[in-house]
Amino acid sequence: MDSAPIGSFSGCHSGIIEHMDTFARLPALMKPAEEARSIAASMQQFFRDIVLTHHQEEERELFTAVMASAAHGEELELVRAIVTRLTSEHRELERCWASLEPQMKKVARGELVKVDTQAIEQLTAGYKAHADYEEQEFLPLAERILGRNANHMAALGMSLHMRRSSKRVVGYI
């Protein structure tokens, strides 16, 4: 009796099983893709709502207050140099994000896109260095300068409070 026809069915199953094993890996691969979409969507909102607002507040409120309160001469020149550096870093970080944002929009939608990993590394490393410099150099200096006059510190606090409480109450009769 010829078993060749039966053997062809058996051989076919091994190929099917191999493809099924590959297919079974799909759910595990979807989790990182879902996480990537979530991170990309979250980062878009975070950069717009938090980072850009933070930069604006620093530049409009904190930097202005510290420069206005700094002693004329060497202290003021130091503050100006630091503020110039920090503001320049803000623009550079924002430019870097602007180059990444279109890619993040696509990732958030689940589109396949080649992500500029070097730009992501540049943005994250750049922001860490920026924040470290600001925390170590500028903020202690700002605290010393503004701390010399309680009114200056209070004015900064009030200005930030007013900016953040932008909800307006509309009255009616």
UniProtKB/TrEMBL annotation:
Domain Hemerythrin-like, chain residue ranges per copy: 12-142
UniProt superkingdom: Bacteria
InterPro entries per UniProt: Hemerythrin-like
Pfam families: Hemerythrin (PF01814)
Protein name (Swiss-Prot/TrEMBL): Hemerythrin-like domain-containing protein
Lineage: Bacteria, Pseudomonadati, Pseudomonadota, Betaproteobacteria, Rhodocyclales
